[in-house]
Write a structure and sequence with these properties.
- The chain has one helix and 15 strands; from the N terminus they run H-E-E-E-E-E-E-E-E-E-E-E-E-E-E-E.
- It is mainly beta.
- The N and C termini lie far apart (100 Å).
Length: 317
Amino acid sequence: MVLDTRMVKRVTRGMVVALGVALGVGLFVAPGCAPHTPIRRTALIPNAYIPSRIGRPLDQGELRATFEVNTLRLGGPTSSVDGRILVASVGDPGLLIPRLNIGASLYLGVFGGLEIGGQFRYASYNWAQANTVGVLPFPYFAKRDIFMGGAGLRYNLRLPLRMSLSFLTELNVAGIPQSTFVCKSGQVCDSGYYIPDGSDTTTPDGKYVFEKMHTSKFFLPAFFLQFTWAAWRDHIHVYAFFGAERNVKNIGFDPNAANKDNSTLTGFWIGMIGAGVELKYKWVFAGINIAVPLETERAIDFGVSMAFQIGASVNIF
């Protein structure tokens, strides 16, 4: 009886260990899950960004040209097919988000602390990663990039102790490309898709069918506050900022088959906080900052990002 009790304890202990190992392995290797909805959509949207006119205030008559990496997302998945969120639900957005945006801007300090200018940003489809599991890539013949540009204003209020408070705003226009995929009636489709060539009469079982590609224009405003301290004359400026900007989402996993002709694209707001430093020597400057997006939407995670700026400024009047 004693021997039997020991054997039972050993077997029980072994089963517990085996179960723990199995669960641990499963947590690391189990694939993500996506709902088998009749419609899936994939939209390419801009990465979260900060205003191009971040940094040192301009003097009256100072013209500033900037090249920027705005922003570079830190961490996240290592390939375009690995979603940042491993479980998708019905109604979640299906998005491709670039790891970085690049761009340029030109701003002029006019009078009384007011600055005016414009900016342009670009992001390649090849830099994008899915926001969640199950997001289908664009067809090879329909890959699109993100182009975004617009105008901006900044007003600088000088404060004591070499400090300033700045109000920054941008109004950008962006083309948002989106592809739509449909699961034929009576089928349960997985994460693959099929592109009909016009001569096919049947659809492979379990595959979505590429339906269409469409680009929609969106106005994307941004509003920010920046606190700046001139740490050393005009050479080093340290700043902190916060604000909000508009981006675009969709219904990527749509349970309504009759909704296939509706793009479902709509705007939403992102909060942003961060800090940075700008170095200036004579007419050249360089800056770096880190930004933390404050997402408000389910299954959208932009992640902590960095931005880099380099450029030159001259006084023209």
